[in-house]
Amino acid sequence: MTCYDRRDLGLLLLRLGTGGVLAAHGAQKLFGWFGGAGIEGTGQFMESVGYRPGKVSATAAGLAEWGGGALLAAGLATPAAGAAAAGGMAGATAVHAPAGFFNEQGGYEHAALLGLAATGIAVAGPGRLSLDHAFGNVLNRDWMVPVALGVAAAVTTAVVGMRNKQVRQAAEPGGEQTLFEE
């Protein structure tokens, strides 16, 4: 019989908590569950904060959160799951950054914490209480961590860069006035 240690139990709890919160937020975006706006409403919000096209952005954010979160919770494809979730949270952080750090003022605290936790899990691995371990870690190799995080960083940098350009253009005189309005 295998004896699991504190690290395995700690990683399981961290994966379940982080992955569960991410998956719930993604389900709000994709399916309208838990009081969410679904693709249509989330797409309109994404457009309003500079992510265009809105429905495509809502789908990408929803999949990063829901898919990445579910995979993290299960401990499956951990490097890719953590990287996808971290990329999604970097995009959310860009939206909330102008409001400062603390969540009470609409800041980026929550998104940054989820992104950091997802990255930490991707780096540390899922532990032995995971599907990755059960399947012989075929989707959790050491080389996959920097590749997954590098790809996510490159894609996120491009997407957030395009979004920031949209925000700057909207702030110029005569620019679009719908950004940040609800």
UniProtKB/TrEMBL annotation:
The chain crosses the membrane at residues 111-131, 143-162. It comes from the Bacteria. It is found in: Cell membrane. Its main location: membrane. It is a multi-pass membrane protein. One of its GO terms (cellular component) is plasma membrane. Pfam families: DoxX. Keywords: Cell membrane, Membrane, Transmembrane, Transmembrane helix. Belongs to the DoxX family. This is DoxX family protein.
